[in-house]
């Protein structure tokens, strides 16, 4: 979690404390406020000290308890301001994976040119149902989120319709590790690799593969997606980062172009995919 995010959350916590201490009906103690809403007694202090992020419902309950409902819009604006860039998985996945898929699909729909890089998994925009199903099941377990696997798979597949939309361009790089990682059963990975082979040559898709044997200028680490040079999304283990700063976007685009120098395309990319496909025969 970045320093700016921490500072913004701490500032919001101080504002919450001010509201509690200046309640028109008389100063509330943290214990009194917690008891009103059935919260653990430590929640008030953790919110006020910027240790946890409040939900919009928390803010509503807070202003109601302190008798200052007019402060809700201000608090919500503060919350949205710093959450727009760091979107925790805990909060995003509270209702399952489907809403998250729908949110990112809207960004893909807005974009004319998408640059993407994934080092260890096949990109969602290319995933077949069984591969996507394996991904969602594993992440639901990791994040302890609702298991809406089938709804999430359908939402991800609907996004793939954009691959066939005239005027769109998808410039995607994949590390060879993604072609060999058994995040799913071998038979599913084999079908997924066949799907990738079929995408090569599609007029909207420019698919590059970075082989194990490629000479690298920089190490290919975590994946990222650039939408029309207006937005970058990056997934971490605790959150999804949405980056709209022009200098940062330019840095990601330079990174993508540097990685592209190590990629192979067309028949050479097919050869790398086919080699991974043949290697599955040993499983």
What descriptive keywords fit this protein?
283 residues, alpha/beta, 434 Repressor (Amino-terminal Domain), Endonuclease, Chain A
In summary, what is this structure?
This protein has 283 residues and is an alpha/beta fold. The protein is 53% helix and 13% strand.
Could you describe the 3D structure shown?
- The structure is a single chain.
- A seven-stranded mixed beta sheet has the order 1-7-6-5-2-3-4, sandwiched between helices.
- The chain is elongated.
- 53% of the residues lie in helices and 13% in strands.
- It is built from 13 helices and seven strands.
- It has two domains: 3-84, lambda repressor-like DNA-binding domains (434 Repressor (Amino-terminal Domain)); 88-282, 2-Layer Sandwich (Endonuclease, Chain A), CATH 3.30.870.10.
| Class per helix and strand makeup | alpha/beta
Number of helices: 13
Count the E strands.
7
Name the CATH class of the largest domain.
Alpha Beta
Mean pLDDT: 93
CATH superfamily of the largest domain: Endonuclease Chain A
Radius of gyration: 23 Å
What does the main sheet amount to? Answer: 7 strands, mixed
């Amino acid at each position: 979690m970045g320093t700016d995010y921490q500072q913004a959350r701490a500032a919001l916590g101080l504002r919450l404390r001010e509201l509690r201490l200046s309640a028109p009906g008389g100063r509330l103690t943290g214990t009194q406020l917690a008891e009103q809403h059935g919260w653990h007694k430590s929640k008030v202090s953790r919110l006020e000290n910027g240790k946890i992020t409040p939900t919009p419902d928390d803010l509503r309950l807070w202003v109601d308890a302190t008798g200052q409902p007019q402060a809700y819009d201000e608090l919500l604006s503060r919350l949205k301001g710093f959450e727009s860039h760091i979107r925790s998985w805990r909060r995003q996945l509270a209702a399952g994976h489907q809403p998250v898929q729908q949110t990112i699909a809207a960004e893909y729909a807005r974009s004319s040119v998408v640059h993407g890089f994934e080092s260890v998994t096949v990109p969602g925009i290319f995933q077949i149902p069984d591969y996507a199903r394996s991904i969602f099941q594993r992440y639901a377990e990791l994040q302890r989120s609702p298991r809406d696997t089938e709804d999430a798979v359908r939402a991800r597949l609907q996004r793939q319709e954009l691959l066939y939309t005239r005027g769109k361009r998808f410039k995607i790089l994949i590390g060879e590790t993604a072609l060999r990682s058994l995040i799913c059963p071998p038979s599913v990975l084999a079908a997924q690799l066949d799907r990738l082979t079929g995408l090569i040559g599609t007029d909207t898709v420019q698919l590059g593969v970075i082989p194990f044997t490629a000479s690298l200028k920089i190490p290919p680490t975590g994946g990222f997606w650039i939408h029309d040079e207006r937005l970058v999304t990056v997934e971490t283990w605790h959150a999804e980062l949405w980056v709209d700063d022009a200098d940062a976007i330019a840095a990601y685009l330079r990174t993508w172009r540097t990685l592209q120098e190590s990629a192979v395309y067309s028949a050479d990319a097919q050869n790398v995919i086919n080699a991974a496909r043949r290697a599955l025969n040993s499983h």
